[in-house]
User: What shape does this take?
Amino acid sequence: MYLMQLIYSITFLLVIHYCSSNEDIYKEELYIRPLASGHTYFNLLFTTVVSPDILKSNIIHHYHLFPKVIADVVRSNGVSEFHVSLTQGLWRYDRWGMPIVGAPPGAEVWAWFNQDEEKDVSSRWTSFAHELGGLLCASLNFVDSNVSSSSPHHSFRPQSILPKSKASKLDNSLLRYAVLPREIVCTENLTPWKKLLPCVAGGSNHKGLAGVLDNAPKLHHSAYHSLRMDLRQICANTECTLTQLELSMGLAIVVDTATSKPNYNEWTFRSIFGSNIAQSCPLSSLTNIYVDLQLSSTHTFNISPEPDYTIKQGQTPIIVYDLHNEKRKGTTFLMSCNYNKQQQISSTDNQNNNSLPSIMVHRYATGYGARDGGIKTVIKLNEQDQTEQITLLYFEQIPWYFRVFLHTLKITTLDDNSIEIKPEHISYIPGKDRQRSYQLELVVKTQQSIIISFEFEMAFLKWNEFPPDPNHGFYIPSAVVSTYLPSKSNYILRSLNSFSLNQSLSSSTSDGFVRVYSESLLVNLPTPDFSMPFNVICLGCTAVALAFGGLHNLTTKEFGFGEKRPKIPFRQRLEDLKFRLRASRHALVQRLFKKKQHEHTE
Amino acid sequence: MFLRYFLTVLLFCFTSALDPFEKFAESTTRHTNNWAILVDTSRFWFNYRHVANVLSIYRSVKRLGIPDSNIILMLADDMACNPRNPRPAEIFNNVAEQINVYGDDVEVDYRGYDVTVENFVRVLTNRLPEVTPVSKRLLSDESSNIFIYMTGHGGDGFLKFQDNEEISAVELADVIEQMWRKKRYHELFFVVDTCQAATLFEKFYSPNILAVGSSKRGEDSLSHHVDPKIGVYVIDRFTYYALEFLEKLKQDSQKTINDFFHCCPKHLCISEVTWRTDLFTKRDYHKTLLTDFIGNVRRTEIVMLNSQLLDNIIINSTLNQTFDKQDESKQEFTYISQMPILD
Assistant: This one.
């Protein structure tokens, strides 16, 4: 009996060992870019690549580096790919350039689902959003109310690989996109997100790059903070006949690194993250740190320690530190950097134009009062870069209580309001009160900066549909502009082949596709006055008004005793009534006859 | 006839003997798991102290052993990452600003607009929609000890949720009775820190409940002190002194519930701390340990590895699926264009 148990446990262990030979790959990367405005952009990327068998149902799975909760959520809801981001702050395209991947302020979730005859997409989307919200401690359960979800027709195409037969026809009902501009991101979202990483054991002193995530207050002391998670299928080999599942988790922060000395910036790992990187994570196959020195043409840099090697991406030199290097084994990795601006007078014009980004989007709410308003979106293109027309895909989702009028849609050039541009394509789904939000997609081909504007009217909400703080206002989510950047080699962007940077940095495999997000707007709806003193005064005054009459009578009239009314017997009263009736009938007859007599005589 | 009489007496003895047996058995059954529900019901920046209250208690509860999976934390508003907070991602309950009660390891289950009376009642009675994830559910059973802590603005017989709705004492008593009928708790410890707190639990009628409130009917609970660097009151009196008491506790502490009741005497709390023990009949609260509610007992189930279990695992593992992979290799995949509208 004991021997049998021993044999079985040994076989069990062998099975585990065999399964683990189908290795999951885990990579950690930190991308650092000093920016011209005195800020520095840090982007932590954790990528896990695993075999797609993990999504097959009805078998027992073995999880090595891939988090089990994500696999369970994705498998039970039949999700093919999903992307979720939680952001605080707005990315300033004019001062900071292009991010590796953009995100709107608040929470953004979008997912493509598999075709399934049994369960419809809406219920799967609801279930998926609830589970993901519970996982990330965010209120993503609010996406199932139709105010926030939609199915874009042209934007947000799948970033997974698809079988060639299905690639041409895509069913848009399998896509759900939702954005919650009011969601905040704080340590409570970082905690469960962090626990999905392989090298994060309980407590602090984590190994590898996850060690910098321990000091949450330092991470939140930033101008921009964005947490994201993407899951999709990628090619496993060059012919793309086998697939793999890629989970990419990223944390992007933009920190102010200016010092009191003018034009001098300084940072160290300890000042930004609160700790250095202690040892590398033994489970990761790659731990790299990249420093993007795009400012090296105008600033002098002083970085320690010495980089391991340098690569060139377009015009920008990027220095790379490999933490798995033999010489760094078992040591703590510290890094410090300071840079200051060189005094250049001649080439300032050249420098200004180069620093302007290719495309920028700004959005404004227009109008006044509580009845109607408008939205104006300004898409600014850097005209030096444009030699030919660029195609812009503009997507907007407006909650139902701002009723959009499509006939007021106007697209004009920024310089001259009278030149109207006709869009190549308009896809508009009108909203329905309390059921569906307004969805607008425009395709515009242009070479100059444009303004897109339209008007809306505000709806009256029922008194119980207001949130607890109604005077804060209601949010209109960001507009998304998708386009291919003209000079793609100048930018470090996420490439479709792999969301981890090591492959996309050495060879420029990015196609220059970007999604640029605008601000989200805050508009006040006609709000009743919920304040307690007002209600109390109303009720009180009503009561006073009603009671006043009676009270006035009581206080001003004199009461006294009067004569008792004689009691007339019933028979007598009946006689009186009969007499009165007869008399009135007589009077009526008299009147009629009198009239007739008059007519006769005249 | 004598026989019949004898049998009736014997039957009577049996049935009456069952009762004392049951009572004896119940008084020695222990709880097997602990749950904590910590609720802050106030919104807006000037109610910073309520969030600090709840997070202080959360910290103690976690420190004494209850894991995040057994804690339901509800915060009605975000103070840590609030734009008005001069110290982002940090919440302090003391002007000395020594401990960041928000910490680096916090999981909030219900936040913002999710904290409503409806959700609170649904969590307690487990009548949640099917899609609710496990982290947002109270999965207690008949041998769970539950610790409920509520703070916010309250009045005579009600507690205000989020500035636009309220839960009344009668409603709360009925909810707790539902929990009892559905066997969702073994013993319940209810702590309230609001104005006129005692009125919130005076309507309870279910057994095995201990309750303590920071003030009695007609009295206001007062806040403790202001942090001039943050600009708001950072903690309430009752929670401040309760926290001082709890910080000294260790997991094997022998402090009793009665000691907790006396942690804030009148000269410190100014309002009179009121408690209710008449429903807690099975045990003596003078001898009940505080760690029965605020500490944790983990449920352990010992399972023997048998051959049936191992067979199942080996047959159904991914080991057998390697053959299927080779069949699918003939299919070709491709990335699709991100802007197909161009073509």
In short: The first strand of chain A starts at residue 25 and ends at 34. The first helix of chain A runs from residue 2 to 19.
